[in-house]
Amino acid sequence: MSKKKVVVKKKTSEPKQMLFNKQNYLLMAAGGALVLLGILLMSGGAQEATQWNADEIYSSRRTILAPIVILGGLGVEIYAIFKK
Q: Which pTM was predicted?
Protein backbone atom coordinates (compact mmCIF):
# COMPACT_ATOMS: atom_id res chain seq x y z
CA MET A 1 0.00 0.00 0.00
CA SER A 2 1.22 3.40 -0.82
CA LYS A 3 0.70 6.25 1.52
CA LYS A 4 -0.31 9.49 -0.06
CA LYS A 5 0.75 12.71 1.47
CA VAL A 6 -2.01 15.21 1.83
CA VAL A 7 -0.85 18.76 1.56
CA VAL A 8 -3.14 21.33 3.06
CA LYS A 9 -2.58 24.79 1.77
CA LYS A 10 -3.52 27.56 4.11
CA LYS A 11 -5.28 30.43 2.53
CA THR A 12 -3.49 33.63 3.19
CA SER A 13 -6.10 36.16 3.98
CA GLU A 14 -5.56 39.61 2.62
CA PRO A 15 -5.73 42.40 5.15
CA LYS A 16 -9.24 43.76 5.31
CA GLN A 17 -9.78 47.24 4.01
CA MET A 18 -11.10 49.57 6.69
CA LEU A 19 -14.39 51.24 5.87
CA PHE A 20 -13.19 54.65 7.08
CA ASN A 21 -9.69 56.06 7.29
CA LYS A 22 -8.13 58.53 9.72
CA GLN A 23 -9.36 61.58 7.82
CA ASN A 24 -12.96 60.31 7.92
CA TYR A 25 -12.79 59.88 11.68
CA LEU A 26 -11.27 63.34 12.15
CA LEU A 27 -14.06 64.89 10.06
CA MET A 28 -16.67 62.96 12.05
CA ALA A 29 -15.18 64.23 15.30
CA ALA A 30 -15.19 67.80 13.95
CA GLY A 31 -18.84 67.44 12.92
CA GLY A 32 -19.75 66.10 16.36
CA ALA A 33 -17.92 69.00 17.98
CA LEU A 34 -19.89 71.47 15.82
CA VAL A 35 -23.18 69.86 16.82
CA LEU A 36 -22.22 70.05 20.51
CA LEU A 37 -21.17 73.68 20.07
CA GLY A 38 -24.54 74.48 18.53
CA ILE A 39 -26.34 72.81 21.42
CA LEU A 40 -24.26 74.81 23.90
CA LEU A 41 -25.06 78.02 22.01
CA MET A 42 -28.75 77.18 22.18
CA SER A 43 -28.73 76.41 25.90
CA GLY A 44 -27.83 78.57 28.84
CA GLY A 45 -29.24 81.72 30.23
CA ALA A 46 -28.98 83.42 33.58
CA GLN A 47 -32.67 83.87 34.27
CA GLU A 48 -34.54 82.01 36.98
CA ALA A 49 -37.27 79.53 36.20
CA THR A 50 -39.96 81.97 37.35
CA GLN A 51 -38.77 84.86 35.16
CA TRP A 52 -39.59 85.54 31.54
CA ASN A 53 -36.97 87.41 29.54
CA ALA A 54 -38.02 87.41 25.89
CA ASP A 55 -34.83 89.14 24.75
CA GLU A 56 -32.72 86.31 26.13
CA ILE A 57 -34.98 83.49 25.01
CA TYR A 58 -35.45 84.77 21.46
CA SER A 59 -31.94 86.13 20.96
CA SER A 60 -30.35 85.77 17.55
CA ARG A 61 -27.69 83.51 19.07
CA ARG A 62 -30.37 80.94 19.99
CA THR A 63 -32.70 81.29 17.03
CA ILE A 64 -30.28 81.86 14.14
CA LEU A 65 -26.66 81.08 14.99
CA ALA A 66 -27.11 77.84 16.96
CA PRO A 67 -29.31 76.06 14.36
CA ILE A 68 -26.90 77.06 11.57
CA VAL A 69 -23.95 75.66 13.54
CA ILE A 70 -25.85 72.41 14.23
CA LEU A 71 -26.83 72.01 10.56
CA GLY A 72 -23.23 72.75 9.56
CA GLY A 73 -22.05 70.01 11.91
CA LEU A 74 -24.54 67.55 10.44
CA GLY A 75 -23.35 68.51 6.96
CA VAL A 76 -19.76 67.79 7.97
CA GLU A 77 -20.88 64.42 9.37
CA ILE A 78 -22.59 63.50 6.09
CA TYR A 79 -19.55 64.58 4.09
CA ALA A 80 -17.26 62.55 6.36
CA ILE A 81 -19.36 59.41 5.87
CA PHE A 82 -19.54 59.68 2.08
CA LYS A 83 -15.94 60.82 1.51
CA LYS A 84 -13.81 58.11 0.00
A: 0.75
